[in-house]
Protein backbone atom coordinates (compact mmCIF):
# COMPACT_ATOMS: atom_id res chain seq x y z
CA UNK A 1 0.00 0.00 0.00
CA UNK A 2 3.10 2.19 0.12
CA UNK A 3 2.36 4.30 -2.95
CA UNK A 4 -1.30 5.01 -2.24
CA UNK A 5 -2.54 8.26 -0.76
CA UNK A 6 -4.14 7.95 2.69
CA UNK A 7 -7.62 8.15 1.13
CA UNK A 8 -6.88 5.35 -1.30
CA UNK A 9 -5.35 3.33 1.53
CA UNK A 10 -8.66 3.60 3.36
CA UNK A 11 -10.41 2.17 0.31
CA UNK A 12 -8.00 -0.73 0.14
CA UNK A 13 -8.53 -1.29 3.85
CA UNK A 14 -12.30 -1.30 3.28
CA UNK A 15 -11.98 -3.96 0.59
CA UNK A 16 -9.68 -5.90 2.90
CA UNK A 17 -12.36 -5.93 5.59
CA UNK A 18 -14.92 -7.32 3.16
CA UNK A 19 -12.52 -10.09 2.18
CA UNK A 20 -11.59 -10.88 5.78
CA UNK A 21 -15.28 -11.17 6.68
CA UNK A 22 -15.52 -14.02 4.15
CA UNK A 23 -13.25 -15.96 6.49
CA UNK A 24 -11.18 -17.81 3.89
CA UNK A 25 -7.43 -17.60 4.32
CA UNK A 26 -6.67 -18.40 0.68
CA UNK A 27 -8.80 -15.48 -0.51
CA UNK A 28 -7.16 -13.14 2.01
CA UNK A 29 -3.66 -14.18 0.86
CA UNK A 30 -4.58 -13.86 -2.81
CA UNK A 31 -6.09 -10.43 -2.29
CA UNK A 32 -2.98 -9.24 -0.48
CA UNK A 33 -0.85 -10.26 -3.43
CA UNK A 34 -2.87 -8.10 -5.86
CA UNK A 35 -1.23 -4.91 -7.07
CA UNK A 36 -3.41 -1.79 -7.01
CA UNK A 37 -2.96 1.03 -9.51
CA UNK A 38 -3.79 4.69 -9.16
CA UNK A 39 -7.48 3.94 -8.65
CA UNK A 40 -8.65 6.47 -11.22
CA UNK A 41 -12.31 5.61 -10.63
CA UNK A 42 -12.02 6.08 -6.86
CA UNK A 43 -10.21 9.37 -7.32
CA UNK A 44 -13.11 10.57 -9.46
CA UNK A 45 -15.71 9.39 -6.96
CA UNK A 46 -14.02 11.07 -4.02
CA UNK A 47 -13.54 14.33 -5.93
CA UNK A 48 -17.19 14.35 -6.96
CA UNK A 49 -18.87 13.03 -3.81
CA UNK A 50 -16.37 14.00 -1.10
CA UNK A 51 -15.35 11.59 1.62
CA UNK A 52 -18.11 9.81 3.52
CA UNK A 53 -18.78 6.21 4.55
CA UNK A 54 -21.05 5.86 1.52
CA UNK A 55 -18.59 7.29 -1.00
CA UNK A 56 -15.75 5.13 0.35
CA UNK A 57 -17.99 2.11 0.08
CA UNK A 58 -18.84 3.01 -3.51
CA UNK A 59 -15.10 3.32 -4.25
CA UNK A 60 -14.41 -0.11 -2.73
CA UNK A 61 -17.23 -1.64 -4.79
CA UNK A 62 -16.04 -0.07 -8.05
CA UNK A 63 -12.41 -1.06 -7.42
CA UNK A 64 -13.45 -4.65 -6.69
CA UNK A 65 -15.43 -4.75 -9.93
CA UNK A 66 -12.53 -3.23 -11.88
CA UNK A 67 -10.06 -5.67 -10.31
CA UNK A 68 -12.35 -8.60 -11.15
CA UNK A 69 -12.52 -7.56 -14.76
CA UNK A 70 -8.70 -7.31 -14.87
CA UNK A 71 -8.35 -10.78 -13.30
CA UNK A 72 -10.60 -12.23 -16.00
CA UNK A 73 -8.90 -10.13 -18.69
CA UNK A 74 -5.50 -11.50 -17.74
CA UNK A 75 -6.79 -15.05 -18.17
CA UNK A 76 -8.34 -14.13 -21.52
CA UNK A 77 -5.21 -12.35 -22.76
CA UNK A 78 -2.86 -14.93 -21.20
CA UNK A 79 -1.06 -11.98 -19.59
CA UNK A 80 1.92 -12.72 -17.36
CA UNK A 81 2.49 -9.32 -15.81
CA UNK A 82 0.39 -6.35 -14.77
CA UNK A 83 1.66 -3.21 -13.07
CA UNK A 84 5.13 -4.75 -12.99
CA UNK A 85 4.05 -7.78 -10.96
CA UNK A 86 3.30 -11.36 -11.99
CA UNK A 87 -0.42 -11.83 -12.61
CA UNK A 88 -2.50 -14.16 -10.43
CA UNK A 89 -3.02 -16.47 -13.40
CA UNK A 90 0.73 -16.61 -14.02
CA UNK A 91 1.41 -17.37 -10.35
CA UNK A 92 -1.50 -19.60 -9.36
CA UNK A 93 -3.19 -20.60 -12.62
CA UNK A 94 -6.26 -19.60 -14.60
CA UNK A 95 -8.69 -21.34 -12.25
CA UNK A 96 -7.73 -19.25 -9.25
CA UNK A 97 -7.80 -16.03 -11.29
CA UNK A 98 -11.31 -16.74 -12.61
CA UNK A 99 -12.65 -17.66 -9.17
CA UNK A 100 -10.98 -14.78 -7.33
CA UNK A 101 -12.58 -12.50 -9.94
CA UNK A 102 -15.98 -14.11 -9.35
CA UNK A 103 -15.54 -13.73 -5.62
CA UNK A 104 -14.65 -10.04 -5.85
CA UNK A 105 -17.58 -9.46 -8.22
CA UNK A 106 -20.01 -11.06 -5.84
CA UNK A 107 -18.67 -9.28 -2.73
CA UNK A 108 -19.02 -6.03 -4.66
CA UNK A 109 -22.59 -6.89 -5.61
CA UNK A 110 -23.45 -7.94 -2.05
CA UNK A 111 -22.35 -4.54 -0.81
CA UNK A 112 -24.02 -2.81 -3.76
CA UNK A 113 -27.29 -4.49 -2.78
CA UNK A 114 -27.13 -2.58 0.50
CA UNK A 115 -26.77 0.81 -1.23
CA UNK A 116 -29.35 3.09 -2.83
CA UNK A 117 -31.28 1.02 -5.39
CA UNK A 118 -30.77 3.49 -8.21
CA UNK A 119 -26.99 3.46 -7.69
CA UNK A 120 -26.99 -0.34 -7.44
CA UNK A 121 -28.78 -0.61 -10.78
CA UNK A 122 -26.51 1.92 -12.52
CA UNK A 123 -23.34 0.14 -11.43
CA UNK A 124 -24.61 -3.41 -12.09
CA UNK A 125 -25.82 -2.38 -15.52
CA UNK A 126 -22.40 -0.88 -16.32
CA UNK A 127 -20.83 -4.25 -15.54
CA UNK A 128 -23.13 -5.90 -18.07
CA UNK A 129 -22.05 -3.36 -20.69
CA UNK A 130 -18.42 -3.93 -19.71
CA UNK A 131 -18.75 -7.68 -20.35
CA UNK A 132 -20.44 -7.04 -23.68
CA UNK A 133 -17.65 -4.59 -24.58
CA UNK A 134 -15.04 -7.24 -23.80
CA UNK A 135 -16.88 -9.71 -26.02
CA UNK A 136 -17.09 -7.18 -28.83
CA UNK A 137 -13.35 -6.56 -28.44
CA UNK A 138 -12.65 -10.26 -29.02
CA UNK A 139 -15.18 -10.52 -31.85
CA UNK A 140 -13.82 -7.44 -33.64
CA UNK A 141 -10.30 -8.89 -33.47
CA UNK A 142 -11.34 -11.90 -35.57
CA UNK A 143 -11.17 -9.91 -38.79
CA UNK A 144 -9.75 -6.53 -39.84
CA UNK A 145 -12.45 -4.21 -38.51
CA UNK A 146 -12.93 -1.08 -40.61
CA UNK A 147 -16.02 0.27 -38.83
CA UNK A 148 -15.44 3.33 -36.69
CA UNK A 149 -18.91 2.94 -35.17
CA UNK A 150 -18.12 -0.56 -33.94
CA UNK A 151 -14.80 0.58 -32.49
CA UNK A 152 -16.48 3.49 -30.73
CA UNK A 153 -19.28 1.31 -29.35
CA UNK A 154 -16.74 -1.25 -28.12
CA UNK A 155 -14.47 1.19 -26.28
CA UNK A 156 -17.50 2.94 -24.81
CA UNK A 157 -18.77 -0.34 -23.39
CA UNK A 158 -15.40 -1.76 -22.42
CA UNK A 159 -13.95 1.35 -20.76
CA UNK A 160 -16.48 4.16 -20.83
CA UNK A 161 -19.44 2.64 -19.02
CA UNK A 162 -17.80 1.88 -15.67
CA UNK A 163 -16.20 5.34 -15.50
CA UNK A 164 -19.52 6.89 -16.54
CA UNK A 165 -21.34 4.85 -13.85
CA UNK A 166 -18.74 5.76 -11.18
CA UNK A 167 -19.10 9.42 -11.99
CA UNK A 168 -22.90 9.33 -12.16
CA UNK A 169 -23.26 7.32 -8.95
CA UNK A 170 -20.90 9.70 -7.13
CA UNK A 171 -22.97 12.67 -8.32
CA UNK A 172 -26.14 10.98 -7.03
CA UNK A 173 -24.50 10.42 -3.63
CA UNK A 174 -23.61 14.11 -3.50
CA UNK A 175 -26.98 15.29 -4.89
CA UNK A 176 -25.22 16.85 -7.86
CA UNK A 177 -26.48 16.90 -11.45
CA UNK A 178 -26.03 13.22 -12.34
CA UNK A 179 -26.60 13.68 -16.08
CA UNK A 180 -23.76 16.19 -16.29
CA UNK A 181 -21.40 13.91 -14.40
CA UNK A 182 -22.46 10.87 -16.42
CA UNK A 183 -21.62 12.73 -19.64
CA UNK A 184 -18.33 13.84 -18.12
CA UNK A 185 -17.46 10.25 -17.14
CA UNK A 186 -18.45 8.85 -20.51
CA UNK A 187 -16.24 11.24 -22.46
CA UNK A 188 -13.39 10.91 -19.97
CA UNK A 189 -13.57 7.11 -20.38
CA UNK A 190 -13.59 7.33 -24.17
CA UNK A 191 -10.65 9.77 -24.19
CA UNK A 192 -8.79 7.56 -21.71
CA UNK A 193 -9.17 4.48 -23.93
CA UNK A 194 -8.27 6.34 -27.15
CA UNK A 195 -5.13 7.73 -25.51
CA UNK A 196 -4.22 4.22 -24.38
CA UNK A 197 -4.69 3.02 -27.97
CA UNK A 198 -2.49 5.86 -29.30
CA UNK A 199 0.28 5.29 -26.73
CA UNK A 200 0.49 1.68 -27.91
CA UNK A 201 1.94 3.11 -31.14
CA UNK A 202 3.91 6.10 -29.96
CA UNK A 203 5.57 4.67 -26.83
CA UNK A 204 8.38 2.12 -26.74
CA UNK A 205 8.17 -1.25 -25.04
CA UNK A 206 9.94 -0.04 -21.87
CA UNK A 207 7.34 2.66 -21.24
CA UNK A 208 4.47 0.32 -22.16
CA UNK A 209 5.62 -2.78 -20.29
CA UNK A 210 4.65 -4.82 -23.36
CA UNK A 211 5.80 -4.85 -27.00
CA UNK A 212 5.08 -1.65 -28.90
CA UNK A 213 2.25 -1.85 -31.45
CA UNK A 214 0.99 -4.98 -29.78
CA UNK A 215 -2.66 -4.02 -30.32
CA UNK A 216 -2.41 -4.47 -34.10
CA UNK A 217 -0.49 -7.75 -33.71
CA UNK A 218 -3.27 -8.82 -31.34
CA UNK A 219 -5.99 -8.05 -33.90
CA UNK A 220 -7.10 -4.72 -32.48
CA UNK A 221 -7.76 -2.11 -35.16
CA UNK A 222 -7.74 0.98 -32.96
CA UNK A 223 -8.48 4.57 -33.95
CA UNK A 224 -5.10 5.37 -35.60
CA UNK A 225 -5.29 2.21 -37.72
CA UNK A 226 -8.91 2.91 -38.65
CA UNK A 227 -7.96 6.36 -39.93
CA UNK A 228 -4.86 5.02 -41.63
CA UNK A 229 -6.83 2.33 -43.45
CA UNK A 230 -9.30 4.93 -44.62
CA UNK A 231 -6.54 7.17 -45.98
CA UNK A 232 -3.59 5.06 -47.08
CA UNK A 233 -3.13 4.21 -50.74
CA UNK A 234 -1.66 0.88 -49.76
CA UNK A 235 -4.59 -0.77 -48.00
CA UNK A 236 -3.48 -4.24 -49.04
CA UNK A 237 -0.09 -3.84 -47.42
CA UNK A 238 -1.67 -2.62 -44.18
CA UNK A 239 -4.06 -5.56 -44.18
CA UNK A 240 -1.17 -7.95 -44.80
CA UNK A 241 0.49 -6.73 -41.58
CA UNK A 242 -2.61 -7.35 -39.47
CA UNK A 243 -2.20 -9.98 -36.73
CA UNK A 244 1.29 -11.03 -37.78
CA UNK A 245 4.76 -10.53 -36.35
CA UNK A 246 5.89 -6.99 -37.24
CA UNK A 247 9.50 -6.44 -38.29
CA UNK A 248 11.25 -3.14 -37.56
CA UNK A 249 10.67 -2.18 -41.20
CA UNK A 250 6.96 -2.96 -40.95
CA UNK A 251 6.66 -0.83 -37.83
CA UNK A 252 8.51 2.04 -39.45
CA UNK A 253 6.31 1.85 -42.52
CA UNK A 254 3.15 1.98 -40.42
CA UNK A 255 4.43 4.94 -38.40
CA UNK A 256 5.52 6.83 -41.53
CA UNK A 257 2.17 6.24 -43.19
CA UNK A 258 0.46 7.45 -40.03
CA UNK A 259 2.51 10.65 -40.15
CA UNK A 260 1.94 11.14 -43.88
CA UNK A 261 -1.83 10.61 -43.73
CA UNK A 262 -2.11 12.47 -40.42
CA UNK A 263 -3.89 9.38 -39.02
CA UNK A 264 -1.98 9.71 -35.75
CA UNK A 265 -2.38 13.48 -35.50
CA UNK A 266 -6.12 13.25 -36.07
CA UNK A 267 -6.47 10.39 -33.60
CA UNK A 268 -4.83 12.56 -30.94
CA UNK A 269 -7.16 15.40 -31.97
CA UNK A 270 -10.15 13.13 -31.44
CA UNK A 271 -8.97 12.10 -27.98
CA UNK A 272 -8.35 15.73 -27.08
CA UNK A 273 -11.77 16.65 -28.39
CA UNK A 274 -13.38 13.98 -26.19
CA UNK A 275 -11.43 15.32 -23.21
CA UNK A 276 -12.76 18.78 -23.96
CA UNK A 277 -16.29 17.43 -24.23
CA UNK A 278 -15.81 15.96 -20.76
CA UNK A 279 -14.76 19.37 -19.48
CA UNK A 280 -17.69 21.10 -21.18
CA UNK A 281 -20.10 18.72 -19.51
CA UNK A 282 -18.92 20.04 -16.15
CA UNK A 283 -19.25 23.71 -17.04
CA UNK A 284 -20.36 25.62 -13.99
CA UNK A 285 -19.59 22.75 -11.62
CA UNK A 286 -16.33 24.36 -10.57
CA UNK A 287 -14.36 21.21 -9.90
CA UNK A 288 -10.71 22.16 -10.39
CA UNK A 289 -9.36 18.69 -9.69
CA UNK A 290 -11.40 17.16 -12.48
CA UNK A 291 -10.31 19.92 -14.88
CA UNK A 292 -6.70 19.27 -13.97
CA UNK A 293 -7.18 15.55 -14.44
CA UNK A 294 -8.52 16.02 -17.95
CA UNK A 295 -5.86 18.57 -18.83
CA UNK A 296 -3.07 16.29 -17.64
CA UNK A 297 -4.52 13.58 -19.87
CA UNK A 298 -4.87 15.60 -23.04
CA UNK A 299 -1.97 18.03 -22.72
CA UNK A 300 0.62 15.26 -22.50
CA UNK A 301 3.30 14.33 -25.02
CA UNK A 302 2.24 11.49 -27.25
CA UNK B 1 -36.93 -25.50 -24.88
CA UNK B 2 -38.79 -28.67 -25.90
CA UNK B 3 -38.30 -30.59 -22.66
CA UNK B 4 -39.16 -27.79 -20.26
CA UNK B 5 -42.53 -27.46 -18.58
CA UNK B 6 -44.55 -24.37 -19.56
CA UNK B 7 -43.52 -22.64 -16.29
CA UNK B 8 -39.85 -23.27 -16.90
CA UNK B 9 -40.27 -22.12 -20.50
CA UNK B 10 -41.58 -18.82 -19.17
CA UNK B 11 -38.41 -18.47 -17.07
CA UNK B 12 -36.20 -19.17 -20.07
CA UNK B 13 -38.23 -16.63 -22.02
CA UNK B 14 -37.71 -14.08 -19.23
CA UNK B 15 -33.93 -14.59 -19.35
CA UNK B 16 -34.09 -14.33 -23.13
CA UNK B 17 -35.76 -10.93 -22.85
CA UNK B 18 -33.01 -9.67 -20.55
CA UNK B 19 -30.38 -10.83 -23.02
CA UNK B 20 -32.21 -9.33 -26.01
CA UNK B 21 -32.44 -5.99 -24.21
CA UNK B 22 -28.62 -5.91 -24.14
CA UNK B 23 -28.79 -5.60 -27.91
CA UNK B 24 -25.77 -7.72 -28.82
CA UNK B 25 -26.35 -10.40 -31.42
CA UNK B 26 -23.38 -12.51 -30.37
CA UNK B 27 -24.69 -12.74 -26.80
CA UNK B 28 -28.17 -13.65 -28.05
CA UNK B 29 -26.77 -16.41 -30.27
CA UNK B 30 -24.55 -17.76 -27.50
CA UNK B 31 -27.40 -17.79 -25.02
CA UNK B 32 -29.62 -19.67 -27.45
CA UNK B 33 -26.97 -22.37 -27.78
CA UNK B 34 -26.91 -23.02 -24.01
CA UNK B 35 -28.58 -26.20 -22.79
CA UNK B 36 -30.87 -25.83 -19.76
CA UNK B 37 -31.33 -28.63 -17.24
CA UNK B 38 -34.27 -29.36 -14.99
CA UNK B 39 -33.93 -26.01 -13.21
CA UNK B 40 -34.07 -27.52 -9.72
CA UNK B 41 -33.68 -24.11 -8.08
CA UNK B 42 -36.55 -22.59 -10.08
CA UNK B 43 -38.77 -25.55 -9.34
CA UNK B 44 -38.14 -24.97 -5.64
CA UNK B 45 -38.82 -21.25 -5.87
CA UNK B 46 -42.10 -21.71 -7.74
CA UNK B 47 -43.29 -24.39 -5.34
CA UNK B 48 -42.48 -22.20 -2.34
CA UNK B 49 -43.52 -18.78 -3.63
CA UNK B 50 -46.10 -19.68 -6.26
CA UNK B 51 -46.16 -18.03 -9.68
CA UNK B 52 -45.98 -14.24 -9.79
CA UNK B 53 -43.95 -11.68 -11.77
CA UNK B 54 -41.56 -11.41 -8.79
CA UNK B 55 -41.07 -15.15 -8.31
CA UNK B 56 -40.48 -15.69 -12.03
CA UNK B 57 -37.93 -12.87 -11.96
CA UNK B 58 -36.19 -14.48 -8.98
CA UNK B 59 -36.08 -17.77 -10.89
CA UNK B 60 -34.55 -16.08 -13.94
CA UNK B 61 -31.93 -14.39 -11.73
CA UNK B 62 -30.99 -17.62 -9.94
CA UNK B 63 -30.80 -19.60 -13.20
CA UNK B 64 -28.55 -16.92 -14.76
CA UNK B 65 -26.25 -17.08 -11.73
CA UNK B 66 -26.22 -20.89 -11.81
CA UNK B 67 -25.54 -20.91 -15.55
CA UNK B 68 -22.69 -18.40 -15.11
CA UNK B 69 -21.06 -20.57 -12.49
CA UNK B 70 -21.33 -23.58 -14.81
CA UNK B 71 -19.79 -21.59 -17.69
CA UNK B 72 -16.82 -20.70 -15.46
CA UNK B 73 -16.68 -24.25 -14.05
CA UNK B 74 -16.41 -25.71 -17.53
CA UNK B 75 -13.42 -23.49 -18.27
CA UNK B 76 -11.82 -24.42 -14.94
CA UNK B 77 -12.45 -28.15 -15.42
CA UNK B 78 -11.65 -28.04 -19.16
CA UNK B 79 -14.99 -29.79 -19.69
CA UNK B 80 -16.03 -30.58 -23.27
CA UNK B 81 -19.62 -31.62 -22.74
CA UNK B 82 -22.45 -30.76 -20.39
CA UNK B 83 -25.97 -32.15 -20.52
CA UNK B 84 -24.99 -34.07 -23.65
CA UNK B 85 -24.03 -30.95 -25.63
CA UNK B 86 -20.65 -29.43 -26.40
CA UNK B 87 -19.75 -26.75 -23.84
CA UNK B 88 -19.38 -23.10 -24.86
CA UNK B 89 -15.64 -23.27 -24.10
CA UNK B 90 -15.28 -26.36 -26.31
CA UNK B 91 -17.17 -24.66 -29.16
CA UNK B 92 -16.03 -21.04 -28.90
CA UNK B 93 -13.06 -21.03 -26.53
CA UNK B 94 -12.40 -20.16 -22.90
CA UNK B 95 -12.57 -16.39 -23.48
CA UNK B 96 -16.16 -16.44 -24.67
CA UNK B 97 -17.20 -18.78 -21.88
CA UNK B 98 -15.67 -16.54 -19.19
CA UNK B 99 -17.22 -13.38 -20.65
CA UNK B 100 -20.65 -14.89 -21.27
CA UNK B 101 -20.56 -15.98 -17.62
CA UNK B 102 -19.62 -12.46 -16.52
CA UNK B 103 -22.40 -11.02 -18.65
CA UNK B 104 -25.05 -13.35 -17.22
CA UNK B 105 -23.80 -12.63 -13.68
CA UNK B 106 -24.08 -8.92 -14.20
CA UNK B 107 -27.52 -9.06 -15.85
CA UNK B 108 -28.65 -11.16 -12.90
CA UNK B 109 -27.24 -8.60 -10.45
CA UNK B 110 -28.80 -5.69 -12.36
CA UNK B 111 -32.20 -7.30 -12.01
CA UNK B 112 -31.48 -8.27 -8.42
CA UNK B 113 -30.75 -4.63 -7.65
CA UNK B 114 -34.37 -3.85 -8.56
CA UNK B 115 -35.77 -6.42 -6.11
CA UNK B 116 -36.32 -6.28 -2.35
CA UNK B 117 -33.00 -5.29 -0.74
CA UNK B 118 -32.99 -8.17 1.73
CA UNK B 119 -33.47 -10.70 -1.06
CA UNK B 120 -30.79 -9.00 -3.16
CA UNK B 121 -28.30 -9.27 -0.30
CA UNK B 122 -29.14 -12.92 0.45
CA UNK B 123 -28.65 -13.98 -3.16
CA UNK B 124 -25.51 -11.88 -3.80
CA UNK B 125 -23.96 -13.19 -0.60
CA UNK B 126 -24.69 -16.77 -1.64
CA UNK B 127 -22.74 -16.13 -4.85
CA UNK B 128 -19.74 -15.03 -2.78
CA UNK B 129 -19.95 -18.23 -0.77
CA UNK B 130 -20.31 -20.20 -4.01
CA UNK B 131 -17.06 -18.73 -5.37
CA UNK B 132 -15.27 -19.46 -2.10
CA UNK B 133 -16.63 -23.01 -2.21
CA UNK B 134 -15.26 -23.46 -5.72
CA UNK B 135 -11.87 -22.19 -4.57
CA UNK B 136 -11.90 -24.54 -1.60
CA UNK B 137 -12.76 -27.40 -3.97
CA UNK B 138 -9.63 -26.68 -6.02
CA UNK B 139 -7.47 -26.14 -2.94
CA UNK B 140 -8.64 -29.36 -1.27
CA UNK B 141 -7.79 -31.30 -4.45
CA UNK B 142 -4.12 -30.33 -4.17
CA UNK B 143 -3.47 -32.97 -1.51
CA UNK B 144 -5.36 -35.98 -0.15
CA UNK B 145 -7.88 -34.26 2.12
CA UNK B 146 -8.82 -36.29 5.19
CA UNK B 147 -10.88 -33.64 6.97
CA UNK B 148 -14.61 -34.24 6.99
CA UNK B 149 -15.20 -30.71 8.26
CA UNK B 150 -13.43 -29.19 5.27
CA UNK B 151 -15.35 -31.41 2.87
CA UNK B 152 -18.64 -30.46 4.53
CA UNK B 153 -17.83 -26.74 4.50
CA UNK B 154 -16.81 -26.93 0.84
CA UNK B 155 -19.95 -28.70 -0.42
CA UNK B 156 -22.11 -26.42 1.70
CA UNK B 157 -20.56 -23.36 0.08
CA UNK B 158 -20.27 -24.78 -3.44
CA UNK B 159 -23.75 -26.30 -3.69
CA UNK B 160 -25.70 -25.63 -0.51
CA UNK B 161 -25.65 -21.86 -0.32
CA UNK B 162 -27.36 -21.03 -3.64
CA UNK B 163 -30.12 -23.59 -3.00
CA UNK B 164 -30.46 -22.27 0.56
CA UNK B 165 -30.66 -18.69 -0.75
CA UNK B 166 -33.21 -19.63 -3.44
CA UNK B 167 -35.39 -21.31 -0.89
CA UNK B 168 -35.05 -18.52 1.68
CA UNK B 169 -35.68 -15.75 -0.87
CA UNK B 170 -38.75 -17.57 -2.20
CA UNK B 171 -40.09 -17.87 1.35
CA UNK B 172 -39.56 -14.13 1.88
CA UNK B 173 -41.46 -13.39 -1.34
CA UNK B 174 -44.35 -15.51 -0.10
CA UNK B 175 -44.18 -14.19 3.49
CA UNK B 176 -43.45 -17.69 4.75
CA UNK B 177 -41.05 -18.64 7.57
CA UNK B 178 -37.74 -17.89 5.85
CA UNK B 179 -35.58 -19.59 8.51
CA UNK B 180 -37.40 -22.86 8.04
CA UNK B 181 -37.05 -22.70 4.27
CA UNK B 182 -33.39 -21.69 4.51
CA UNK B 183 -32.69 -24.75 6.65
CA UNK B 184 -34.66 -26.89 4.23
CA UNK B 185 -32.66 -25.54 1.27
CA UNK B 186 -29.33 -25.96 3.03
CA UNK B 187 -29.93 -29.61 3.85
CA UNK B 188 -31.43 -30.31 0.44
CA UNK B 189 -28.32 -28.81 -1.17
CA UNK B 190 -25.97 -30.84 1.01
CA UNK B 191 -27.89 -34.07 0.33
CA UNK B 192 -27.96 -33.25 -3.38
CA UNK B 193 -24.17 -32.84 -3.51
CA UNK B 194 -23.45 -35.94 -1.42
CA UNK B 195 -25.71 -38.02 -3.67
CA UNK B 196 -23.86 -36.63 -6.68
CA UNK B 197 -20.58 -37.65 -5.06
CA UNK B 198 -21.90 -41.16 -4.33
CA UNK B 199 -23.28 -41.67 -7.85
CA UNK B 200 -19.80 -40.91 -9.21
CA UNK B 201 -18.80 -44.26 -7.69
CA UNK B 202 -21.90 -46.38 -8.09
CA UNK B 203 -22.97 -45.40 -11.63
CA UNK B 204 -21.22 -46.38 -14.86
CA UNK B 205 -19.81 -43.93 -17.36
CA UNK B 206 -22.87 -44.13 -19.64
CA UNK B 207 -25.21 -42.99 -16.88
CA UNK B 208 -22.75 -40.35 -15.67
CA UNK B 209 -21.72 -38.95 -19.05
CA UNK B 210 -18.12 -38.95 -17.77
CA UNK B 211 -15.72 -41.67 -16.58
CA UNK B 212 -16.83 -43.46 -13.44
CA UNK B 213 -14.88 -42.58 -10.26
CA UNK B 214 -13.60 -39.46 -11.94
CA UNK B 215 -13.84 -37.41 -8.74
CA UNK B 216 -11.00 -39.35 -7.09
CA UNK B 217 -8.88 -39.22 -10.26
CA UNK B 218 -9.55 -35.47 -10.25
CA UNK B 219 -8.32 -35.09 -6.66
CA UNK B 220 -11.71 -34.93 -4.97
CA UNK B 221 -11.85 -36.90 -1.74
CA UNK B 222 -15.62 -37.07 -1.37
CA UNK B 223 -17.63 -38.54 1.52
CA UNK B 224 -17.28 -42.25 0.58
CA UNK B 225 -13.50 -41.89 0.23
CA UNK B 226 -13.27 -39.96 3.51
CA UNK B 227 -15.04 -42.76 5.35
CA UNK B 228 -13.02 -45.39 3.50
CA UNK B 229 -9.73 -43.74 4.42
CA UNK B 230 -10.81 -43.61 8.06
CA UNK B 231 -11.70 -47.31 8.09
CA UNK B 232 -9.50 -49.21 5.64
CA UNK B 233 -6.46 -51.08 6.88
CA UNK B 234 -4.67 -50.26 3.65
CA UNK B 235 -4.49 -46.47 3.82
CA UNK B 236 -1.23 -46.39 1.85
CA UNK B 237 -2.74 -48.24 -1.08
CA UNK B 238 -5.75 -45.90 -1.13
CA UNK B 239 -3.46 -42.88 -1.06
CA UNK B 240 -1.35 -44.36 -3.89
CA UNK B 241 -4.46 -44.45 -6.11
CA UNK B 242 -5.29 -40.77 -5.52
CA UNK B 243 -5.15 -38.55 -8.63
CA UNK B 244 -3.80 -41.27 -10.93
CA UNK B 245 -5.25 -43.35 -13.74
CA UNK B 246 -7.37 -46.13 -12.18
CA UNK B 247 -7.22 -49.59 -13.72
CA UNK B 248 -10.25 -51.90 -13.57
CA UNK B 249 -8.53 -53.75 -10.73
CA UNK B 250 -7.96 -50.52 -8.80
CA UNK B 251 -11.62 -49.58 -9.19
CA UNK B 252 -12.76 -53.00 -8.08
CA UNK B 253 -10.50 -52.87 -5.05
CA UNK B 254 -11.87 -49.47 -4.02
CA UNK B 255 -15.46 -50.63 -4.45
CA UNK B 256 -14.84 -53.86 -2.50
CA UNK B 257 -13.18 -51.97 0.33
CA UNK B 258 -16.11 -49.56 0.37
CA UNK B 259 -18.51 -52.49 0.71
CA UNK B 260 -16.40 -54.20 3.36
CA UNK B 261 -15.93 -51.09 5.51
CA UNK B 262 -19.51 -49.92 4.85
CA UNK B 263 -18.07 -46.59 3.69
CA UNK B 264 -20.55 -46.47 0.82
CA UNK B 265 -23.51 -47.62 2.88
CA UNK B 266 -22.81 -45.04 5.56
CA UNK B 267 -22.30 -42.29 2.98
CA UNK B 268 -25.75 -43.05 1.58
CA UNK B 269 -27.09 -43.04 5.12
CA UNK B 270 -25.62 -39.56 5.66
CA UNK B 271 -27.19 -38.22 2.46
CA UNK B 272 -30.54 -39.76 3.45
CA UNK B 273 -30.22 -38.26 6.90
CA UNK B 274 -29.62 -34.80 5.40
CA UNK B 275 -32.67 -35.28 3.17
CA UNK B 276 -34.73 -36.12 6.25
CA UNK B 277 -33.40 -33.07 8.05
CA UNK B 278 -34.61 -31.00 5.09
CA UNK B 279 -38.05 -32.56 5.45
CA UNK B 280 -38.09 -31.97 9.20
CA UNK B 281 -37.33 -28.31 8.66
CA UNK B 282 -40.58 -28.03 6.73
CA UNK B 283 -42.74 -29.76 9.34
CA UNK B 284 -46.17 -28.16 9.39
CA UNK B 285 -45.60 -26.33 6.12
CA UNK B 286 -47.62 -28.90 4.19
CA UNK B 287 -45.78 -28.70 0.89
CA UNK B 288 -46.32 -32.07 -0.73
CA UNK B 289 -44.24 -31.29 -3.81
CA UNK B 290 -41.15 -30.56 -1.71
CA UNK B 291 -41.68 -33.75 0.28
CA UNK B 292 -41.94 -35.72 -2.94
CA UNK B 293 -38.82 -34.06 -4.29
CA UNK B 294 -36.78 -35.06 -1.24
CA UNK B 295 -38.22 -38.57 -1.22
CA UNK B 296 -37.42 -39.10 -4.90
CA UNK B 297 -33.84 -38.01 -4.13
CA UNK B 298 -33.25 -40.23 -1.13
CA UNK B 299 -35.39 -43.25 -1.97
CA UNK B 300 -33.55 -43.91 -5.25
CA UNK B 301 -31.31 -46.84 -6.12
CA UNK B 302 -27.66 -46.00 -5.71
Molecular structure report:
The structure is a homodimer of 302-residue chains. Chain A is mostly helical. Chain A folds into 2 domains: 115 residues, Farnesyl Diphosphate Synthase, CATH 1.10.600; 186 residues, Farnesyl Diphosphate Synthase. Chain A contains 16 helices and 2 strands. A two-stranded antiparallel sheet of chain A has the order 1-2. Chain A starts with 5 loop residues before the first helix and ends with a helix. The interface between A and B is large, with 40 and 39 residues.
Summarize the structure.
Chain A has 302 residues and is mostly helical. The first copy, chain A, is built from 16 helices and 2 strands.
